[in-house]
């Protein structure tokens, strides 16, 4: 077990990543921010978002005091929006209950919103040198191949076996280097397809390599038919602005603003009636736009956009709608597919 950790540490020092913007700081805030952003998201995608976040929210106090709308606007396009809501909640709890200091106890860290056991281990190990295991996606792949662990890692039994291994493998010291090396090994060499086994520092002890099981480990998620959900969305134009609605905190795109939604393939009469009742607006419906297909983890969402024009208000208009001008679209907290649609139908100079 110690040989594995020693090889990972030696490899990390010579060949691992050392120039990521959150490295070389030991700052728990920056490491926490990067770890949350990296959940289910590639490093190359995360880096520009991370830099914008640090520019706007340089420490946990700045993030905690920021309006949630501002935080969501900075996150728009990164996906998995519950991460941003939990990030904001977590920052407030750290300020209110921990005087702005990240807890050093892994079990306390793991209970904070949006963190969990693996992210807590990464924060504690990388920030404080704590002897704490991690088990994010890349690490699961490394361990499953290195020790020949069969079975889908999402199941409880395989998860337990991987956590036990991750704990047993921890070195006595150099936790920052080991933890970063383990993540880098999975991200750069032991990748999902066509891994670079010839350059791997632990290839000599890799069960999957010895048994020609690299292509089948870790065991992939069982294939399920992904359900399809559909909705009509209305692009209500009022001059050079579009009317957008704040989505509920929970659910898809929670906390963002988006186009008003109606039943899929709803009739013109029912849409206009619903707009009048829900928002206090009279609209005139126009052409249908091409459908938007967006894949979430558990289902596919098909949006059927429809153009509309404001004709007037029926009494007091609903406060749930807000007018956003074409020039404000880039800075608005919009879901990525909705932003792409609105930019496509607005001024070409804004795209």
Q: What tags apply to this protein structure?
A:
351 residues; elongated; Endonuclease III, domain 1; 2 domains; alpha+beta; Nucleoside Triphosphate Pyrophosphohydrolase
Please tell me about this protein's structure:
With 351 residues, this protein is an alpha+beta fold. It has 2 domains: 2-210, Endonuclease III, domain 1 (Orthogonal Bundle); 228-350, Nucleoside Triphosphate Pyrophosphohydrolase, CATH 3.90.79.10. It contains 14 helices and 8 strands. The protein has helices at 2-15, 28-37, 43-56, 60-65, 68-75, 82-98, 106-110, 116-128, 137-147, 156-168, 175-189, 207-210, 268-279, 336-345, and strands at 228-238, 241-246, 257-258, 261-263, 281-288, 292-295, 300-313, 321-325. Strands 1, 2, 3, 4, 5, 6, 7 and 8 form an 8-stranded mixed sheet that branches. A hairpin with a 2-residue loop joins strand 1 and strand 2 (241-246). The radius of gyration is 24 Å and the shape is elongated.
Give the radius of gyration: 24 Å
By CATH, the topology of the largest domain is Endonuclease III, domain 1
Total strand count, please? Answer: 8
Write down the overall mean pLDDT: 93
Uncertain runs: none
State the name of the first-level CATH class of the largest domain: Mainly Alpha
Oligomeric form of this entry? Answer: single chain
CATH superfamily of the largest domain: Hypothetical protein, domain 2
Sheet having the most strands: 8 strands, mixed
Work out the helix count: 14
> What pattern of helices and strands is seen along the backbone?
HHHHHHHHHHHHEEEEHEEEEH
**Proportion of residues in β-strands:** 15-25%
- Net shape: elongated
**Alpha-beta content class:** alpha+beta
Cα end-to-end separation: 53 Å
In total, the number of domains comes to 2
Q: Could you say what the CATH architecture of the largest domain is?
A: Orthogonal Bundle
Q: Give the proportion of residues in helices.
A: 40-55%
